[in-house]
Amino acid sequence: MPSPIWPYITPGIPDDLFDRLPGIPLSKREVRLLLISHLRLTTDTILWDIGAGTGTIPVEVGLLCSQGKIIAVERDEEVATLIRRNCDRFSVTNVDIIVGSAPECLKDLPAPPNRVCIEGGRPIKDILFEVWHYLPHQGRVVVTAGNLENLYTVSETFAQLQVRNIEVVQSAVNRLETRGNHQTFAAVDPIFILSGEKLE
Ligand SMILES: C[S@@+](CC[C@H](N)C(=O)[O-])C[C@H]1O[C@@H](n2cnc3c(N)ncnc32)[C@H](O)[C@@H]1O
């Protein structure tokens, strides 16, 4: 059922429609769209979103995967309540929010995933190794990296895990902004999106 606040079938909810907490990051709309496309969702996807933050991914995926389930993992309790508020705001009902720190909490999650999104979870290498254990044949993982160190670590870990069909893209997005009397283009922080599959 479409959300009253976002009554469209296309993903890409504008950033300013989400409830925010000061200092809590959110995946910018254009980067979020790229990330979601690399997840290759089906209507019944079971997604683990590790380091769910503001909850933009659970909301978008929850709306897209009507018969699916999203398990949003967030270590900070106050941030977890923000995810709940955003799910309510968009009438998304298929999200379980787990307050816990990955990788330790992953063994207690209610259902194994066939898709995993990791955005900002630390320590990323340990999380990826643990996730790999639960991911089934043809399961997909999508990880973002905002700096060279994380890009290197994720890339090295993908190689160690023998992740297949790896793709790496970097976003390059500019948005029109009004600054004083001028309309200028401002860059959205570029993010690397690394994705791949488990093939046994
Ligand atoms: C960049 S934010 C995610 C933003 C989110 N994708 C969005 O668009 O709303 C990263 C979040 O990961 C959480 N986090 C970091 N390490 C974690 C861990 N090991 N386990 C669970 N959550 C973690 C942080 O508390 C933070 O809220």
What features would you highlight for this structure?
Rossmann fold; two-stranded antiparallel ribbon; binds S-adenosylmethionine; globular; 29% helix; alpha/beta
Tell me what you see in this structure.
Helix 4 (124-134) packs parallel to helix 5. The chain is built from 5 helices and 9 strands; from the N terminus they run αβαβαββαβαββββ. The protein has helices at 29-39, 56-64, 77-89, 124-134, 148-161; strands spanning 46-50, 69-74, 95-99, 115-118, 140-145, 164-170, 173-179, 182-188, 192-197. It has 200 residues and is of the alpha/beta class. It has a single domain (26-168), classed as Vaccinia Virus protein VP39 (Rossmann fold, 3-Layer(aba) Sandwich), CATH 3.40.50. The model has no long low-confidence stretch (mean pLDDT 96). The strands form 2 sheets. Strands 3-2-1-4-5-9-6 form a 7-stranded mixed β-sheet, sandwiched between helices. The protein binds S-adenosylmethionine. Residues 24-27, 51-57, 73-76, 79, 101-102, 119-122 line the site of S-adenosylmethionine.
- How big is the Rg? 17 Å
Strand content: 25-35%
Mean pLDDT: 96
Low-confidence stretches: none
CATH superfamily, called what? Vaccinia Virus protein VP39
Shape: globular
* Series of H and E elements: HEHEHEEHEHEEEE
**Which ions, cofactors or small ligands are bound in this entry?**
S-adenosylmethionine
How many domains comprise the coordinates?
A: 1
Number of strands: 9
Strand count, sense and closure of the main sheet? 7 strands, mixed
Within the largest sheet, what's the order of strands?
Answer: 3-2-1-4-5-9-6
InterPro entries: Cbl_synth_MTase_CbiT, Cobalamin_biosynth_MTase, SAM-dependent_MTases_sf
Pathway: Cofactor biosynthesis; adenosylcobalamin biosynthesis
Protein name: Precorrin-6Y C5,15-methyltransferase subunit CbiT
Keywords: Cobalamin biosynthesis, Methyltransferase, S-adenosyl-L-methionine, Transferase
